Amino acid sequence: MNELVDIMQRCESRGTRLLLGGVQGVMARVLSITGLRHAFEVFAVFDDALRLAIAHP
Question: For 49, which DSSP code?
Fold first, then answer.
């Protein structure tokens, strides 16, 4: 989780977005339990994250 937070902070400092696609099961629960679910742009389906990345570069 620390690595994800570090990457998110680096993206923010560069003015880019970090989209997490394919987040399900244990990872989805970990993000929810830690309160980080709302810190990231999370998508259960990878293609949904990819579509958003392409539509809003």
Answer: H
- pTM: predicted TM-score of the whole model, two decimal places: 0.82
Identify the three-state secondary structure at position 14: helix
Tokens read off for 39: 């810190």
Distance in Å from the first CA to the final CA of the chain: 25
CB 16, CB 41: distance < 8 Å: no
Length of the chain: 57
Q: How far is CA 5 from CA 24, 26, 51, in A?
A: 18, 17, 23
Give per-10-residue mean pLDDT for the chain (57 aa): 93 94 96 93 96 87
